Amino acid sequence: MQEGTMELMWRTSPMSGGNAHYVEALYEQYLVDPNAVPDEWRNYFDRLPHPDGSPAQDVPLGPIRDQFYQFGKRRLNGHAGTVETSGENKKQVKVLQLINAYRFRGHQQADIDPLNLRARVEVPDLELSFHQLTNADLDTPFQTGSLFLGKDVAPLKEIVEVLEKTYCRSIGCEFMHIVDTEEKRWLQQRFESVRSKPKFSKEVRRHVLERLTAAEGLENYLASKYPGTKRFGLEGGESFIPMMDEVIQRAGGYGTKEVVIGMAHRGRLNLLINILGKSPSELIEEFDGKKVNEQGSGDVKYHQGFSSNVMTPGGEVHLALAFNPSHLEIVAPVVEGSVRARQDRRDDTDGTKVLPISIHGDASMAGQGVVMETLQMSQTRAYRTGGTLHVVINNQVGFTTSHPLDTRSTEYCTDIAKMIQAPIFHVNGDDPDAVLHATQVAVDYRHQFKRDVVIDLVCYRRRGHNEADEPSGTQPMMYEKIKKHKSSREIYARRLVKEGLVSEDDTKEMMEKYRDDLQAGNHVANALVKEPNTSLFVNWTPYLGHEWTGDADTSIDMKRMQQLAARMCTIPDGIQVQRQVAKIYEDRRKMQAGGMAVNWGFAETLAYATLLDQGHGVRITGQDVGRGTFSHRHAVVHNQKDGSTYVPLEHIAEDQPRFTIHDSFLSEEAVLAFEYGYATTTPKALVIWEAQFGDFANGAQVVIDQFISSGESKWGRLCGLTMLLPHGYEGQGPEHSSARLERYLQLCAEHNMQVCVPTTPAQIFHLLRRQVIRPLRKPLIVMSPKSLLRHKEAVSSLEELANGKFQMVLADQGKLEAEKVKRVVLCAGKVYYDLAAYRAENERDDTAIVRIEQLYPFPKEELYEALKEYTNLEQVVWCQEEPLNQGAWYQSQHHMRVVADMLKNGMGRELKFAGRPASAAPAAGYMSVHTEQQRQLVNDAFNA
């Protein structure tokens, strides 16, 4: 602990001033027995930072601070007590090994299953005999080592009792896989000091009962009103609601301003009503089948998102529940992206102000690969969010027909989290006090260490996979037990009545009041803010209600553009640039001065510079984005002297918006989902994900299908995400040729997204600028080039960048006499340059070549304008590199026919195809076959 930090803590703490003597006395009690002080003070003391060394001798210490430092020093450096018994050394070591064994494996003997169906494995490590100890040693005092017992020496029986209570009751702790000693000591102290069972006040426990009553009350109400209707109820896992209530309130106390939640179906409606404060009357309308959304297809009620504000001890907190499809865990990386965007907006670099919560099912957490991908990104530069709180609603059965032996190969469904050294707390859902304690420790851990933490809420599912399912057909033994099992609320209520904290009448009154509020349509969430602070929301107003338009003023003053180009080409002295990269930057300086034609890398990078200059942030991630897969971008310069990096686009102006560019880890699904989440929360920025090769996006197809293409229709979620997908047939085989253009076109409808195939540097310059400058937020799918990045013909002028715009159709660039043109070849992408080369070589002045640069929304009017001058047309041909059954042909030919029919001689029926024959694979694997196919399709375009 640094002295300045301790002094600041002391000055701003209620432990100083007139309260000091009182608090000192409380603190001394806490050091001996944490349960002896009120829970609010225990929570405060729990969160005090622990020292990592002794204070300087010349710093005056009050009694409480002196105690604090002595307490921490003993724990860190070992206890100084001695035990004077013969042969103690050997047994002392064995006792310390026994203590460690409980920390490592006590969870395997913990009472975490409400149904008591879980077969506890035998753990020899927890037996005295395993450590060469016997019952005769139980009364022998031993040093307690680092055990948080409140004293240095204790009889072995007391040590064992403490270990049993701490690690083998309602909470099973897994944290010894963590390599950081400070984190392990912190967790040991939190659990061992209170034996994993702190004493909560009467008010706290009554509040927990009230929240349990709410959780059960909603399910009972819906079950009676809509029997057999799917709702994926929370029965059996009701402790989830007081858990989430505590998470939000405790996080708010730490200064959290936003909480973003991702979860699948089970318990979602309960969370919406009892935590987020959705109106019960709205939910009833959805159950009655009334259309809530004015536009789009809508979605089922247990996929819907929601947002609201609640009041906490630290002020108002904005809650957002992410929309998600039935692909369960895919929402997790979307949440992370949304959280990172909110943190960037708040300059929340350590994640204090925005908290992500991912709520999992047991089978999906163990079974779905995106969970691993999301965990893997948690500490990377591009994707870290300061730690995620993971909650598993563990039904112990997954989906109804599964057998536990078939759902995973690991002991716990949460074992995947060990790979990032996340602590895992398995807790019995029928012990709400234990749930509350595990929740508090989890929130505190995340706040303290900014790392992921997992709560495994072990519960059960009173009904089947859904309310129309009969689970006993495949799970007879489990559901025989469940039929006889009391609910968590009833068990807890009886406990509180027995302890004299509430009466039977109190519990009945809680239930009746909740049901009355539901029937009246009243909000039933605690601390809901009726007039929320709108500054906590992202303002989407400027982007709402715009009809589709392809036009936008993307021009820029030439002088200003050249100034920005000079800045993006400037590399400070002292940075030794690699030889080929130095040549790229030297050429860019010539382009900036007008001495060379503009290539793709220059135009693309300049588009980012101009957007930054106009106040738009830019974020780019993907594999190899720093340099570009094909080494065209080099937005990140690597110093050859020391390996440090320099990003010129971060230095366009002193007060510029954020420019972020990071190479991603080797994932497509989680990374694309993350960027979708980021883009849905950051409307003003240009957010880009680039695939290493376009067909690598295949690994993220669920994100494309369920979010990018349909999110607006289902949920009204606008998104301006841009996907750059390298596409083009270069003879590199089936997996490095096609970005599967046909898949995106198949998903296009209702102006849901844009699919473009730019072929010049000026086109990509204006296309990227249009994506942000135009107040329309639609996903942009770009079939970006590979060989065109350096093609000698694929160049533009500075004037085209400064004064042009994105042209959805590029008319023929040759100097043809319109009346001589008998054939028009329509195409998109790289094949244009092959067609142009053929025409020049064969002097075919009877054939015009027209490029369709935007395939969706299809530019019918612009295409007609490009064709109408050819009054003597005899044939229109569509030429593509892709096989007949792929590419744009099947999805776009009807649009081309409509335009061709608009011509004077009605050419729609004469539209022909030139391309590769239908194929199961996207491309040929042999260069000789590729070359012959390419030659043939170009020849067919002119001579078919």
TrEMBL record:
Enzyme's top EC category: oxidoreductase
Record EC number: 1.2.4.2
Record-linked CDD domains: TPP_E1_OGDC_like
Assigned GO CC terms: cytosol; oxoglutarate dehydrogenase complex
Keyword check for Lyase: no
Every Transketolase-like pyrimidine-binding domain range: 598-791
Lineage: superkingdom: Bacteria
Entry keyword set: Glycolysis, Oxidoreductase, Thiamine pyrophosphate
Any GO BP: tricarboxylic acid cycle
Pfam families with a match to the protein in the record: 2-oxogl_dehyd_N, E1_dh, OxoGdeHyase_C, Transket_pyr
Oxidoreductase among keywords: yes
Gene Ontology molecular function: oxoglutarate dehydrogenase (succinyl-transferring) activity; thiamine pyrophosphate binding
Quaternary structure, from the entry: Homodimer. Part of the 2-oxoglutarate dehydrogenase (OGDH) complex composed of E1 (2-oxoglutarate dehydrogenase), E2 (dihydrolipoamide succinyltransferase) and E3 (dihydrolipoamide dehydrogenase); the complex contains multiple copies of the three enzymatic components (E1, E2 and E3).
UniProt family annotation: Belongs to the alpha-ketoglutarate dehydrogenase family.
Functional note: E1 component of the 2-oxoglutarate dehydrogenase (OGDH) complex which catalyzes the decarboxylation of 2-oxoglutarate, the first step in the conversion of 2-oxoglutarate to succinyl-CoA and CO(2).
The protein's name: 2-oxoglutarate dehydrogenase E1 component
Source organism phylogeny: Bacteria, Pseudomonadati, Pseudomonadota, Gammaproteobacteria, Oceanospirillales
